[in-house]
């Protein structure tokens, strides 16, 4: 393993995941990436941090190349409360950002982990 990249590393899940991955793989092997939310001081002090916008394909590829990343945990997203206020931006970050990460991962032969959820209906059988 060369390096792990965590997008959305300053977010609710990303901040915890980044620190946990650093404990397992070593601080210098896990790159925390943020865009809008400023990372905590603990995150900044414990290993490499970078800033980039996953909606920009070139900067996505550049960060993967620069840090010699082979594994990406893509957590950068706009959640529902913010996304409902600006659906176009939510689409850009959540869909185009994911597409850029996947394309760069294909080019650089990286593994990608991306969270997903399954909507559950309470009024009928689950499939």
Describe the structure.
This protein is an alpha/beta fold. It has a single domain (4-113), classed as 3-Layer(aba) Sandwich (Rossmann fold), CATH 3.40.50. It is 46% helix and 15% strand. The protein is built from five helices and five strands; from the N terminus they run βαβαβαβααβ. The chain has helices at residues 12-25, 41-46, 57-66, 80-85, 87-108; strands spanning 4-7, 30-34, 49-51, 71-74, 111-113. It has a five-stranded parallel beta sheet with strand order 3-2-1-4-5, with helices on both faces. β2, α2 and β3 form a beta-alpha-beta unit. α3 crosses α5. The longest helix is centred in the last third of the chain and has 22 residues, at 87-108. 32% of the residues are buried. The model has no long low-confidence stretch (mean pLDDT 90).
CA-based shape: globular
Measured between the Cα atoms of the first and last residue, the distance is 37 Å
What is the radius of gyration?
A: 15 Å
- The count of β-strands is 5
Q: What is the highest CATH level, the class?
A: Alpha Beta
The helix tally amounts to: 5
Q: Any guess at the CATH architecture?
A: 3-Layer(aba) Sandwich
- Please give the order of strands in the largest beta sheet: 3-2-1-4-5
Element pattern in H and E: EHEHEHEHHE
Task: Sketch the major β-sheet.
Answer: 5 strands, parallel
Overall pLDDT metric: 90
State the CATH superfamily name. Answer: NAD(P)-binding Rossmann-like Domain
Fraction of residues in β-strands: 5-15%
In terms of per-residue confidence, which ranges show pLDDT below 50 for 5 or more consecutive residues? none
User: Which structural category do the helix and sheet elements fall into?
Assistant: alpha/beta
Number of domains: 1
Question: What helical percentage do the residues reach?
Answer: 40-55%
């Amino acid at each position: 393993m060369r390096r792990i990249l965590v997008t959305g590393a300053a977010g609710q899940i990303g901040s915890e995941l980044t620190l946990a991955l650093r404990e397992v793989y070593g601080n210098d092997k896990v790159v925390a990436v943020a865009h809008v939310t400023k990372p905590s001081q603990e995150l900044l002090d414990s290993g490499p941090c970078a800033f980039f916008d996953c909606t920009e394909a070139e900067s996505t590829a550049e960060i993967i190349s620069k840090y010699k990343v082979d594994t990406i945990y893509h957590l950068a997203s706009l959640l529902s409360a913010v996304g409902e206020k600006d659906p176009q931006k939510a689409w850009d970050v959540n869909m185009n950002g994911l597409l850029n990460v996947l394309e760069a991962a294909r080019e650089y032969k990286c593994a990608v982990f991306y969270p997903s959820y399954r909507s559950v209906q309470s009024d009928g059988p689950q499939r």
